[in-house]
Amino acid sequence: MKSASTLSSAFLQSAGQALPEPLLTLRANRASALTGLLLPTRKTENWKYSAKHLKLTDDMASSLPLNASAGAEADIQGYTVVLVNGVVRPEASNYPALKGLSIQRFSDLDGDDAELAADLLGKSISDQPAKHGSINLTSLNAARFEDGLLIQLQPGTVLDQPLFVIHHTSASHSGSAFPCILVAAGSNSQLTLVEDYVSSGESPVMVNTATEFSLGDGANITSVRLNTEGQNVQHMGTTGVRQQRNSRFESHSVGFGGTLRRHDLHVRLEGEGGECKLNGVVVTQGTQHYDNHTTIEHVAAHCNSEESYRNIAADKSHAIFNGRIHIHQDAQKSNANMSNKNLLLTNGAEINTKPELEIYADDVKCAHGATIGQLDNESIFYLVSRGLSRRDAKVLLTMAFINELVAQIPVELVRNTANTGLNQFFDQAFQEV
């Protein structure tokens, strides 16, 4: 019998970036814990549909150049932080000057802030109960990050406009990048964080990301995530969230497929009165692959969660949604709703959905639902009879399917970018009608 493959030791070699001692210790400990880690197979529950797309060859283990060009980024009139191959570039960034807001590179942290970062990193992810047969490859980020970004908001601090974090991957040759962001939001603070993942170059590369949010009492955080990386980029990302009393977290994710795209979103509602809202849109075409896994942990009582994800798959592409809501025993008066709607544009496309409810409290309101279907021929016929071409009729119906979620994105620039990408998707998906 063939033995299971393990993660190559080349992926656990020490990174070169100089970091404060607490972060170096954390990184070394995480690398040691991953030694001999079994790689996922089709029998691994949370990698059932994606394992065959994962390519962790030794030539991808080396870090991508830290001095690569930042490239020509979008013209953003506002606050920006630029990361190139996972390393912060202050000279290409435009930090906000606001009392109560601190934005620092990991490599610049003093002893106290480094201790804070080392204490918080991974907690919103590693504290999630491990399901039987699951493998968490996103923990590789903590063993390999070269640098990172610590964003701290003092109590009551409110940022007046979104903060854009541009993650640029320069794929001039094979390798990997490990961007890491930590947001510590004090009580009653507010922030909108936009993460934009882009790439240049054609070499096969891996991007393994971790973004973690720690929300104090009454904090209000909006996270917007846009992935438009090239087809050659394997992307495995994790977003972890810990919420305290009366805090609110809102997530909007828009993803375009590639060789392998995966995003794990973990939210822990740890304080009474916490609320979260998760929206996601994914489109795939050709042989692209996109895998979304979400987990909402209702740990405390009187918390609300609302989740809505929609997938569109064309050609021979594949989209996956696995959403889990876990109501803990003490989480009475919880209110949780999950919806996943999926649209297949061709017979060769594939979508798998698995909504899960795990409830251990008896006084809760929970609901979940999932649908998979194709465009309705009667609706197409109706629009054609009113003068539209078949192509325009299909585009109109498909856009209507996801526009409800796209329209909710609170940042106009992201909405426009998403709509541009969607129009390009429609042009290719419906070019032969």
UniProtKB/TrEMBL annotation:
SUPFAM superfamilies according to UniProt: Stabilizer of iron transporter SufD
Domain of life: Bacteria
Domain SUF system FeS cluster assembly SufBD core, first and last residues per copy: 172-401
GO biological process: iron-sulfur cluster assembly
Protein name according to UniProt: Fe-S cluster assembly protein SufD
Organism of derivation: Marinobacter psychrophilus
